[in-house]
Please model this.
Amino acid sequence: GGEAPYAARVTVRSDIPVAKGLKSSSGVGVAVARAAGAALGHPPSPLEVARLASEVAQRIGLSATGAFDDCLAAAQPGVHVTNNLLRERLRTDPVNSHWWVVLGVPRSQHRPSPDYAERFRRAASDAAAARVAAQRGDCLGAMRSNTMLVERIMGYEYAELRRALEGTGALACGVSG
Model:
């Protein structure tokens, strides 16, 4: 908006439940960034939208890192591998058009990621397997490794459910994001 003062009123209506791990805040951030850009006559690129939404999410305490990966996924189709701290895209692969996704939505809400930031920092070296798999384009392997780490840190107990689903043919099961 340059130097001119602007004000906006934002109303959000969504069927996506909040605080369930479905990346609703990233979706809202991307939608607001796109709407602001369109209103000012300067629609930002998907990468810029993701960076803007990520910055806001971190500043207001919704996410410890800003969830750039989730914002990019909301802004542009594909399987994205990112460096969240630098807000850089490392690779993007197309989603296999033959895959189906089934969501299980937990009954309880989870706390914002800043509440877990220190636990994740202490377990950073445990994320190596997920990082290596993601960087070589093995999104299902990365999902499996990341899921086990997230479950351990956040106290989720879905291992038995994951095994049962994979036993019935699921290619992978895990946390979103």
Summary: The helical segments are 24-39, 46-59, 68-75, 117-122, 128-135, 139-154, 159-167. The longest strand covers residues 88-93. The mean pLDDT is 90.
